[in-house]
Amino acid sequence: KVKISVMQKIINVSEASLLDKINNILEEEMIVGFTTDGKPLTKEQYNNRLLVAENQIKSGDFIT
Predict the structure, then answer these.
(1) What is the pTM of this model?
(2) In the chain, how many domains are there?
């Protein structure tokens, strides 16, 4: 029910700036990967994990 209601509201939106905001929210919340435990990762979570990993590599904190 909620999905259909949201879709109907989005279809009726004509203001481009509002559509851009909706699109940005959806892009950030989309699942783009999974952890080794199988938990879903959003784009933001994935990017944060990449930054942490890059910082660990720069500081020599990694296993080969």
Answers:
(1) 0.61
(2) 1
